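User: We ran a pulldown and think these components assemble together. Before we commit to crystallization trials, I'd like a predicted model of the whole complex to look at. Sequences follow.
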Amino acid sequence: MTASASIDTSVDTHCPYCALQCAMSIDNGKVSPREFPTNRGGLCQKGWTSAELLTSPSRLTTPLVRRDGELRPATWDEALDLVAATLRDLRDAHGPDSVGVFGGGGLTNEKSYLLGKFARVALGTSQIDYNGRFCMSSAAAAGLEAFGLDRGMPFPVTDLDRADAILLVGGNPAETMPPFVQHLKNAELIVIDPRRTPTAELATVHLQPAPGTDLALALGLLHTAVADGYLDRQYLDERTTGFDDAWRIAATWWPERVERVTGVPVADQRAAVRILAEAHNAYVLTGRGTEQHASGADTVSAWINLALALGLPGRKYSGYGCLTGQGNGQGGREHGQKADQLPGYRRIDDPAARAHIMDVWGVDDLPGPGRSAYELLDALGQPNGPKALLVFGSNMIVSAPRSQHVADRLGALDLLVVADLVLSETAAVADVVLPVTQWAEESGTMTNLEGRVLLRQRAVAPPEGVRSDLDVLQGLATRLGQPAERFPSEPEAVFEELRVASKGGVADYSGVTYERLRRGEALHWPVVEGGTPRTFLDRFAHPDGRARFVPVEHRGPVESPDADFPLQATTGRVLQHYQSGAQTRLVPELHRAEPEAYVEVHPDTAARAGLVHGGMAAVVSRRGRTLARVRCVPSMRIDVVFLPFHYAGDGRANLLTNPALDPTSRMPEFKVCAVRLESV
Amino acid sequence: MRNVVIVGYGMAGARLADEIRRRDPKAERVSVTVLGDEAHHAYNRVLLSSVVAGSLTPEAVRLHDTDWAAEHHVDLRLGGGVTKIDRTRRVVHVGDTEVPYDSLVLATGARSWVPPTPGLLDGNGELAPGAVAFRSLDDCARIVAKASPGTPVAVLGGGLLGLEAARGLAGRGCLVTVVHPVGHLMERQLDAGAGRVLATTLQGLGIEFRLGALATGYTPGEGLELNDGTHVPADLVVVSAGVRAETSLADEAGLDVDRGILVDDALRTSDPRVHAIGDCAQHVGTVSGLVQPAWEQAAVLADRLTGVAPAARYAGTTVVTRLKARDVDLAALGDVHVDVDSADDEVLCFQDPARGRYAKLVLRDDRVTGAIVLGAPDAAAAITQLYDRGLPAPTDRLALLLGRALPAENVASPADLPAAAVVCRCNTVSKGQLVGAWRAGATTLSSIAEVTRAGTGCGGCKDAVCGIVDWLAASQPQSA
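Assistant: Here's a predicted model for the assembly, 1160 residues in total across the polymer chains.
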């Protein structure tokens, strides 16, 4: 079975991977970079090799149905009929919430939108969430609270070129979105990361806090900003509320106390604040490292408080932003695949929002909010949980926390359906696998990390036997008794409906058209007529127009090191792989560069555990045991190990991670858990 | 509902009220009454040196806003000191009022100790004009009022707080002299060598020292006479010669008192209905005078009094002394009074007085048991973390002592770079691949980029690729 891609002439598109959405062209199956404000003609190794999956022998081209314990080829009708019949039976027997839906931050806006509509209208279930919960939810929650609106970067990426100073906390763009680094070159860079990452190597000042102590550090930097006379009082008076309550807590985090908790020297705290505050233009940027904690939303609030105290947000060429991770991590959280949201970044518990969406969809009822991602996975197959799950664009067996438990829950389902382009680890355990189109084989819009809507145009024909996710949703919806026109399978038709649904919402796309995007217009949402490259210059999105300080207190990691688990593990990414690695591990060049799971460890820590560089180690937490190749790295903290999370099987870093959730964002504590090292 | 009465609204008392309300936010388990004798709301004593230095306003160091008590269901009564505890009837007297309690917590703190220098106290036992203790927010106001630039100031006491005050006043432009009866500064925390280097560092910031000297007289408007016959001119004398636990209420109530009010691991005094925390309490021989123990005690006691964790115990606090003085990085912890040639311990010592650096590290079984780190901020932070977390120290002791690993030797020439070294990270291109491409004819930056993709990601490696191309060109034998 070989997949063949028929090749058209050169087509402008964007990379299938991260949220930078580097511009590229495809011609004769060959990718070449394209000048664009975000990537400036740069591509990393993932982008350069992205076309290989179009013709990979690993590509799925026929539906698979589990029979006698094995996945066997089936026709589309067989597969869809089986799924629809099972879903109908479950709904009849146990109610609509017996079926769950799990989406992804890599899905186009059209797919995200239609998936949410499918869940709430065709299935009538409240049980839908997506893997973006594991990415952007903490920053989104904090951004909403502070500014009344969450757009990862409320300014164009190119504005960073004008910055004199940038504080980047918990982000490693030199590996996760390399061409982005071009925008950091004119600024003095302060990097906060427990590891000396390639990004930290670029920094003027690198602060290396103990994992899980970023919140204390942020409080401390706010304290120092005040004590060293950098508070922008006029800005506080004119554009913010709530400073005093935030300060009462920050006042108790004097630099020496912060040093003791975080390990960041007082002198470095002062230097960081000085560089940031004395810059004419300055930014505070956050990434997953500081967000993926059970106190992640409060931690981001603390960083935003610092930015507000210095008067940065809402000023041209200054501000706060978060680095969105997944390709459509921004758009994916706006159009209704999140448990608590409806299209246009509307709240599902807002009566006016519900009325508007019911009107657009022509229905007279909608389910309410459902479980968050990990809670949904944890409930699968439980007495009150879903008995079937439909998965689009996610590989949770690798990417969810406490992943063996998640695998066990998936195993307890009556029906697991996975739509994917390759046989991911999650697809491999499914009852039905639906082969779907990817990136260059379909059209759709993506919203990049700066809130700019991009059109990815179909560049090649998909292999025979493969259908788009939109087709799949239409096929299932009609089998569940829905009229076909309610679930269009043409991307532009879906987008036209999304425009209407989002109109008047926070993320208003009503002014965006495929035609305008084809013309290359730069449209950052909200777009009613023109775009909004910078959202807060005149006012913030709260009714009073002001940004809010949020009083937050440091809590520390949920799990502290102890005698049995004396080290702390943190997880992250490598340049060559994307997310769960389901795609990039199948690209030979990427696989050769980073073929297997590894653990970075200080040489002394390795020696004490009887490990040698290049040998194998077991990393053990209360939840599981991961096998990884040892890399001795002298710049590591002596009490911290690092594992990339892209690998499958015994090498899954998420076998270890702690599913403790943030009370607001429901973000799991991916970035710190207690572990020990064992020789194997 | 049990009735908890806290005597004292300083850092310990305020924290206890906070910790109780964190566990019992709606006052469903215990009622809380706080009795404070100062007229204003609790403030953060740790930050008083910042107030003296002028970096924080008095308003900024308040622990609570004025509406804190109402918002948190706390009965806060200010400005009336407790005059008596009646343990039989379980009431405390505030003036004419009686306040009943089920559990009483003494958080009465400490007061400044004034040395018996003639002239320092007036006839009423109050500090004479021009002399101010360094203990309360009101003291700070008095100090700041007198501390205009050029004012001669004497600080009595070269301990932690005295030096913080001295540094803050020097920063305001005062002419500061520290008078200290011992031969070196901060003798409780430092050895003589560290004390000397610290004095040198502070001298560089404009502070003068009279070490090993006793003040024998004070004349307002003139200054201090010392026992070596010299005179220290001072319009302001800041008294920072130590504190004494405030135990008089406990003493009069018949509770067991030594240097502080004696408490057990449950923070109970000799009367189990009466507790003590903070500077007034003495736990296993220690009267701490520091905020960290007070806060940890408040958390334990809140666990017990609210019933959230009735078995909670206070096990003592690991103390790290950290001087809060701008441009001076000093940390001291554990037992540092160990000889360099001690047989039982591993002792490392580094002295660089000319640059204000001094580091002494005491290890036993690979664990840090004591350290003084001065002028090496990174080392102070790292060693403190090792000590607090009980981690084995890295084998590279020199790097630990200096605070950072010595930089790796710079690779001088592309020739020295191993072939496997990755030059372009964005595209995983090694030096070997670049050399191969060059030999195959890609001899310019653009052609080598086209073949290998080096430099096509973030562009950060372009200089390195250029260097390799130039090196290859130069190493090529010249042909005609």
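Residues 421 and 438 of chain A are 7 Å apart (CA to CA). That may be worth checking against your pulldown data before setting up trials.

User: Thanks, that helps.
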